[in-house]
């Protein structure tokens, strides 16, 4: 007679090993996901060791840390680093647009850097936090945030960051450049 609390393994002794195998596969899958996540985290650091000089590595690490503190995963951190590299070669004192754009993310005095002094925008922590607060977490970052949540790859995120947040004059050329660099530098996130 069947009793509602009786297990399948008990009703069918041969099912026991199959249940154990199924549980083992689930656990192995979870471990693989954790390892992939750790590889993705180390991939950001790997770029900094291979492609950048010590000063650039320091700025890239600062960007990664600030984006991580804001809740962004490694793929978004990588997209931000690529964009800052194209904007300033990760030089916090970089100046563009006849002195109107300053710092890592080239904050323009009539855009994301409005109302902020040159000195403030040249400070790499201020520059990164400003791009995060005013742009990435603001109206212009809506599509970027959504695609991060959707699990988009680094090339797409770098292109969106370029178009929506940095807003360069040559939109299409910059999207392609930044996507290509992101995929080249972060192949495990591509």
Record the SSE blueprint.
Blueprint: H1 8-11, H2 15-50, H3 54-69, H4 74-88, E1 95-96, E2 101-102, E3 107-108, H5 118-122, H6 124-136, H7 142-150, H8 154-166, H9 171-185
Catalogue the unreliable spans.
1-10, 26-41
What structural class do the secondary elements suggest?
Answer: mainly alpha
Specify Rg, calculated over alpha carbons. Answer: 22 Å
- Which percent range describes the beta-strand content? under 5%
Q: What is the overall silhouette?
A: globular
Residues in helix, %: 55-70%
Q: Any idea of the CATH class?
A: Mainly Alpha
Do you know the CATH architecture?
A: Orthogonal Bundle
How many domains? The number is 1
Return the average pLDDT rounded to an integer: 84
Order of helices and strands: HHHHEEEHHHHH
Helix count? 9
Largest sheet: 3 strands, antiparallel
Amino-to-carboxy terminus distance: 56 Å
Briefly note the CATH topology name.
Answer: Lysozyme
The total count of strands amounts to 3
Strand order of the largest sheet: 1-2-3
